[in-house]
Amino acid sequence: MTTTDLRSVDGRAAGFADAVRDDAALRRFLHGLPGVDQAGVERRAAALATRSIKKESKLQAIDMAISMIDLTTLEGADTPGKVRSLCAQARRPDPGYPDVPPVAAVCVYPDLAGVAVEALRGSGVAVAAVATAFPSGRSSRAVKLADTALAVEAGAGEIDMVIDRGAFLTGRYGAVYEEILAVKEACGSAHLKVILETGELAGYDDVRRASWLALLAGADVIKTSTGKISPAATLPVVQVMLQAVRDWHLATGEHRGVKAAGGIRTSKDAIRHLVAVNEIAGPAWLTPGLFRFGASALLGDLLRQRRTQLEGHYADRDHIGGS
């Protein structure tokens, strides 16, 4: 989608205030967005997946991917000890190679955010917390805002919220918009990552609409998935979301980010996504501030591939600290 496309929809490249003045205007804006060419998006994603990176650049790409990971534990059996162990790994992913960069963030439930904050103090690694009745989003707004406040008060610098997919899929866009807006306000200075749960959306057109809806409501980052639903972060879906943040920047001058979460497990997958980021959004997005991987299992493979590059043979899983 180009800046011209935006003008044809809204009448002004940066005039989004009219789009959210009421439910009817929001619906007109979202359904007026250019449709996604499914065959074209999938064809381009397939082409991007075949791009190769020269050997001398692969180590740089691996380190970049490591620096973009949100190392995550979101299980009912999580304990303070498990979170501290994860934070130690986040600080120093491969003890055998101290030049490996730390990850971008550690992501936990709100009640464990304070543990992560203390464990990561002074490291530069951010603390993210899921909120708003993650992963289903099925609760009252009061509960969702209390969930967000708990994480923020514990010191989380990033909040990952989930949208109300039921409201979105039934066309109640205003309700989704207002909820994101309320959570954004509750975040204070913390960054807000809005999870679209793309595996539950009807198709690429809905992914585009949900992306723009979240951006209009103030999302700092739009995120594919909770990691609990499949499919999650497919390359075509990420491509559509990258187009949205690129075009938001063209229209407003503001940089917003994308987080690809769920199903990215290998270095090859990660590098394919980095290629897509570079070619669709642009090199400015090749930074942890604007692109993240929500894929803890990915770290282990990145570390093994990194050692392979340096040592000339494939490292054994048992000798790598990654999960």
From TrEMBL:
InterPro entries: Aldolase_TIM, DeoC, DeoC/FbaB/LacD_aldolase. Keywords: Lyase, Schiff base. Pathway: Carbohydrate degradation; 2-deoxy-D-ribose 1-phosphate degradation; D-glyceraldehyde 3-phosphate and acetaldehyde from 2-deoxy-alpha-D-ribose 1-phosphate: step 2/2. Its EC number is 4.1.2.4. It holds the Pfam family DeoC. It catalyses: 2-deoxy-D-ribose 5-phosphate = D-glyceraldehyde 3-phosphate + acetaldehyde. SUPFAM superfamilies: Aldolase (SSF51569). Belongs to the DeoC/FbaB aldolase family. DeoC type 2 subfamily. This is Deoxyribose-phosphate aldolase. It comes from Pseudonocardia aurantiaca. The lineage of its organism: Bacteria, Bacillati, Actinomycetota, Actinomycetes, Pseudonocardiales.
